[in-house]
Amino acid sequence: MNVPTAVRASAERLVVAATMGPTVHDVHAWRFKVVSGLIEVHADPARFRPAHDPAGRGLHLSSGAALVNLRLAATQLGHEAVVRLLPDAGRPSVLASVRLAGRHRVSREERLLYAATLRPFRAGPSASGAHPPLTVVDELAGEARLEGATLRKLPPGPNSGQRAVLTTRGDSRAEWLRAGQALQRLLLSASARSLVASFVYAAVDVPGVGEVTDPGETPQVLLEIAQVGDAATPAAGRWTGRTTAVPAAARAAFPAVP
């Protein structure tokens, strides 16, 4: 089926915008493909590193983050983006499909989040700085809920930032994609509030997580969120990410609370 020229032009523009955004993975181990009225997100076997991520969990998290960039780009063009996760059981490499639906009126928050996708990715160590206001942390938790995940606050650590864990109800491929979307939305929202965040999504046991999660919740990403400089103001922040970590490094970033 031929794709209308206007639809293809919009889709291709969105693909470019989405790939320019920050990624929570070491490489872009996914690719977009414009098909009949859809944009598909495919796992890219040429760039996927199964030796380091045999189950593909990091790949799904990264692809979920890319989906958020794509959706935000769609809003800037006035489109509603309808997402289906794992739409074709016969093609497991297709991680998601995005259909450009009816007209969408972009909100101020969507403009701020999209602006955050255009800032360069800055990798770095754990966040350090002032503890963010609890009201702001609660706002970030609300952003995570919009993507089907839960942000749980952890007890204070040796640094002054807020430790937290991002969880999902289950640990399937679809939940990994949801966690990636929630992580990206949370990071962009933190950036828009002048917060800095570091994260680790290595599968490790961290003291304190069991006490703040409910039965059935699966920890997906560990974060530390901090406020730098003056009080948080919109569109002036940055975020840092660590996408891989051995257990010892992760425990150093999130040590036990005395």
Features:
alpha+beta, 4-stranded antiparallel β-sheet, disordered C terminus
Q: Could you walk me through the main structural features you see in this protein, from its secondary elements to its overall organization?
A:
By secondary structure, the chain is an alpha+beta fold. It is 35% helix and 22% strand. The protein has helices spanning 5-20, 57-76, 108-117, 134-146, 173-192, 209-212, 247-253, and strands spanning 30-35, 38-43, 79-85, 94-103, 150-153, 162-169, 195-200, 217-227. The strands form two sheets. The chain has a four-stranded antiparallel sheet with strand order 1-2-4-3, covered by helices on one side. Strand 3 (79-85) and strand 4 form a beta hairpin. Helix 4 runs antiparallel to helix 5 (173-192).
